[in-house]
Design brief:
Largest sheet: 5 strands, parallel
Mean pLDDT: 81
Structural class: alpha/beta
Number of domains: 3
Radius of gyration: 27 Å
Number of strands: 16
CATH architecture of the largest domain: Orthogonal Bundle
Helix content: 40-55%
Low-confidence stretches: 124-144, 394-406
Length: 481
């Protein structure tokens, strides 16, 4: 029998404090509440009466509330289920989505958002035959590529789960190094196109005159050097996902052809006459703010709206510092799997990592952790080892922001006083501390031009490029400086 909005709400929650808050809020909204703390008690409640909505925790005193939702579906196939969980990982969010949960809320949750979801669920009442979500491919227990349980990442996870069962175009924004390609891969691997190819192309890395050939392919003789027919990324991704990274760097003419392909679902190779139907899901990403580019006429407004159907914004690492410890541990494990020594981080080392600025975001953290794994003398890495290997954050801020006592020399003096480096270590520790801000300064002075930055520094361009990669820097970030 179908439930309706006048039926009570069933709350399955074994945390007394959380249950008290939810019950009080729902009763203030005028709902009648039935509360239980276990799966067994839940099943007895469902067998005895009907409910408008069920709210359930995942980890209950007698089992996994999420894993046992199939039994709930048998008893009440049309009852919306809202999942609450302190297991705040992408895996939990996807499991909730697979179980056809009406909504998923990581703990701690916003009470007003929860009440809004309950109101929606109590008035929606989808039936099994009218399920708006459709089938969800299983994840088969694979490890999730994204790490972090911060509130900022929980919002990302929830957005990911909303696009898994459809082919809507997604635009991922965020600073360089925040993990935009990982999000795109997660959407592909967990979504309904997972059996098709995932093709990634960095439009910023392709010469402007070759972008169209790279995306759409070309026919033999289409231009000088086209000695054979070439299949473009659209055709390679047919049936799967095409990830267009750094879409803000795409030349204007290629933007026009891309828009036409998105509108028609057909492409034409450079130098070709035949239109080719392609079936691809588009996920685009950029570290740029496209709004001023649209105003300046360098990025097409109609293309922006075509791409920005579902926006996902990735937070910089400085806005989710609570994830740094988990990320660092994750990278230590990955480093060991790749042949580097097994290491552990002491609490004071984690505190030092959490206090740093991380302008290169997760990518910079990964590079630093790999460097620590390689260069640490002991298995247990402490704060002194972190400072010894990667330098002091005091220097970075002093050099970049200037110093009222005399600039670089004063910053160096302040660093020496703060660090008191032991004999024999001064050169290497000072170099490690000052090299990154010095390169950033040169890139800033030259608008991100690596050749001019190398000339300014007086070093070889290839050396500079190598150090930029090792330090996790992004020259494009300085293009507007």
């Amino acid at each position: 029998m179908a439930s309706n909005a006048s039926d009570p709400i069933l709350l399955v929650e074994d945390d007394a404090a959380i249950a008290t808050v939810i019950i009080a809020a729902l009763e203030d909204e005028g709902y009648a509440i039935a509360h239980c703390t276990s799966i067994a008690a839940r099943d007895r409640q469902l067998a005895s009466r009907r409910f408008a909505v069920m709210l359930t925790d995942v980890i209950l005193e007698d089992g996994d509330g999420l894993a046992s939702l199939s039994a709930v579906r048998e008893r009440a196939p049309d009852m919306p289920v809202i999942v609450l969980s302190a297991q705040n990982t992408l895996d939990t969010a996807v499991r909730a989505s697979e179980s056809e949960a009406f909504e998923y809320f990581p703990k701690p949750f916003d009470l007003d958002e929860l009440l809004h979801a309950v109101r929606q669920a109590a008035g929606t009442r989808p039936t099994a035959a009218e399920d708006i979500h459709g089938a969800m491919p299983g994840t088969e227990g694979e490890s999730m590529p994204l790490v972090g349980r911060s509130p900022a990442m929980q919002g990302v996870y929830r957005m990911i789960t909303r696009v898994l069962r459809n082919d809507l175009t997604v635009l991922i924004t965020g600073e360089s190094g925040t993990g935009k390609e990982l999000v795109a891969e997660a959407i592909h691997e967990l979504g309904n196109r997972r059996t098709g190819p995932f093709v990634a192309v960095n439009t910023a890395a392709i010469p402007a005159d070759l972008v169209e050939s790279e995306l759409f392919g070309h026919e033999k003789g289409a231009f000088t050097g086209a000695i054979a027919q070439a299949i473009g990324k659209f055709e390679q991704a047919n049936g799967g996902t095409l990830f267009l990274d750094e879409i803000g760097d795409m030349p204007a003419e290629a933007q026009t052809r891309l828009l036409r392909a998105l509108q028609s679902g057909r492409i034409r190779r450079v130098g070709g006459r035949q239109e080719i139907a392609v079936n691809v899901r588009i996920i685009a990403a950029t570290n740029r703010d496209l709004s001023p580019m649209i105003a300046a006429g360098t990025f097409r407004e109609d293309l922006y709206y075509r791409l920005n159907v579902v926006p996902i914004e990735l937070p910089p690492l400085r806005e989710r510092r609570e994830d740094i410890a988990a990320l660092a541990q994750h990278f230590l494990i990955k480093a060991a799997e790749e042949g580097l020594p097994r290491r552990q981080l002491a609490p004071d080392a984690i505190e030092q990592l959490e206090a740093r600025n991380w302008r290169g975001n997760v990518r910079e953290l990964r590079n630093v952790v790999y460097r620590l794994a390689l260069m640490a003398r002991e298995e247990r890495i402490d704060a002194a080892s972190v400072t010894d290997i990667i330098g002091s954050e005091v220097t970075l801020s002093a050099v970049q922001q200037g110093d009222s006592r005399g600039g670089f020399a004063a910053a160096l003096a302040g660093w020496l006083a703060a660090e008191n480096p032991p004999p024999g270590a001064l050169y290497h520790r000072a170099l490690a501390a000052f090299e990154k801000p010095l390169i950033e300064y040169a890139l800033g002075r030259t608008g991100g031009n690596q050749l001019r930055a190398a000339q300014l520094l007086g070093i070889n361009r290839n050396t500079l490029r190598k150090r930029i990669g090792e330090l996790g820097l992004e020259p494009d970030r300085f293009s507007a400086s």
